Amino acid sequence: MSETTGTGLPGSPTSLFDHALQLHQLAPGEPLPRDGEPYPDDELHRRRRGPTAPEDRHSAGKDVALVLDTHFARASALPSELADAFHDVYVPIHQNGHIAAAAERAGRERVRQTGRWLIRYGTDRCAVTVGLALLAAVGSADDIPLIQTIGLLSNRFGPLAAHAFERQTGGVEALLWLAERVTGWGRVYVVEALCKLDDPTARPWLLRRACDGDFLNGYFAGNVATVAKLHEALADLDTDSEMVDHVGRLLHQMSDCGGMGLTLAHYPHSGAVLEAHARHVGLLSPTIERYFTIAVLAQHLTTEPPEAAGCTAAQQEALRATYLEVLDREEWTQAARAGLATDDNRMRWLADHRAPQLRLRAFPDRGSDAEE
Q1: 38: cis peptide before it, omega within 30°?
Q2: Fewest beta carbons less than 10 Å away: which of 15, 210, 219, 269?
Q3: Are 172 and 202 in contact (CB under 8 A)?
Q4: 118 near 150, Cβ under 8 Å?
Q5: Would you call 157 exposed, middle or buried from its count of C-beta atoms within 10 A (0-12, 13-18, 19+)?
Q6: How confident is the model at residue 208 (pLDDT cuts 50, 70, 90)?
Q7: How many other CB atoms sit within 10 Å of the CB of residue 50?
Q8: Which among 245, 221, 20 has a CA at the least distance from the CA of 132?
Q9: What φ, ψ does residue 366 adopt, rounded to 5°?
Q10: How far apart are CA 141 and CA 372, in angstroms?
Q11: Could you tell me where the Low complexity compositional bias lies (predicted)?
Q12: Once rounded to an integer, what is the mean pLDDT over residues 188-199?
């Protein structure tokens, strides 16, 4: 197993791990630009496309397992022999029972060493994915830094990284580290794993940081509100502006995530959370994000029946009035107009789609002749 250590040969293709590490070192606390894409193997993969997913989804991963079984049956086989072995088979990016079973059939330490080598030195995304699947099945806490780094390429490797951390000691801390540094689908995978673990140590982060404003947050916003026991933490809004903003994001996502996740209509504490948010957000200074969030919620309360917001008719009218009063304050109006002047996408979208119905002072030219 001597090939489990060392570095790549001079002039050799860049490993995906090194690619992720180099980008991460440029901004250690931030997600990778464009999720690290394009990967170093991008051109090769476009020229040499592998097979698509089988129609029988239960058979996905069987071909990978067969390659692994054949490899591990040879005691002298080195991890590097798998570096280019998966181009002709479909490699699933999520946890897979066939691959996990192949990992369990072989010696655990050998499987670990193979997975580590493929992740650390693999220059092909298929081989690296298989390596990550092996560590997700039999890896140890020692593998956390390795998995975190490759997990930064989260659109491809987020699902297996999240699954690996679900079953490891120290997995919650590892997930929280990764969650701060991934967006898009990667954030969905990691936040869903945190919700599944339901560890009390993760609740402060879930209450304040889980939603980053991406449309895909709708898949987990309601689950976050439920698992983090948002309705029990509303008193914290008195002194926690970060939480007020995050509650606004949660409510925004839950107002428009039908078919994705839990909506306000089905969240049992919608009325109480909306009332708490409406009370506190108006006490803060205006920002473009706050204006946008309140306007979206006011629109929802204007155009949808009360049950769609999980509240009574009286609550709906009071909430709508509270939000509109904040939006029409002079300083909030000026903030919105400043955003529109700089062509902020959120203000532009409000001006084109929401403000006409709400008749907000920030957008008089666009809303003055709109129908109620």
Answers
A1: yes
A2: 269
A3: yes
A4: no
A5: buried
A6: very high
A7: 14
A8: 20
A9: -90, -20
A10: 59
A11: 1-16
A12: 97
